[in-house]
Amino acid sequence: MNTIVLEQFPRLESERLRFEQLIDVNLEQMLEITSFNGRATTHAEVVKLLGEIEIHRNNKAGITWGIYLATELIGTIGFYRGFENEWGEVGYVIRENFRRKGYVTEALRTVLRFAFQKMQLKGVSAFTTDDNSPSMGVLCKFGFEKSEEFSGLHRKYMRVNEEQLK
Prior knowledge:
Layout: E1 12-13, E2 17-20, H1 27-33, H2 43-58, E3 63-69, E4 72-80, E5 87-94, H3 103-118, E6 123-129, H4 133-141, E7 145-150, E8 155-160
Parallel strand pairs: 5-6
Antiparallel strand pairs: 1-2, 2-3, 3-4, 4-5, 6-8, 7-8
């Protein structure tokens, strides 16, 4: 894995979206989408989560981008829980009023390309709940396949390698 690309925060762009570090963010917007280590319910908890996200990146154990449509923060996407065996775990959250507009597809495509081409990951996994069919649909578009079920958590583990990314 190429960790050099994480030394300075990598800014990414797609057709409609910008992917930037979560600095000087609107705390109200962040309350809608925080889920790094549980859901934040106060501004203080959001600030704490942002600090944890930065520590995670500084330790090269993950990276989280804010997803921006023009100047508005609409979600987050990133890699979590380290990069064991040159694999990453991708996760994303989009504010409710921006769902089902193709933003997750666009964001995932951008971040997966970065993961395989720049970070040189060998594979990517994702978790989603059994009742989140829109997310499962997006993952399937990119060649993710169900590989395990966690009955206690009702989650499916899906993964992709670079060859499956078209």
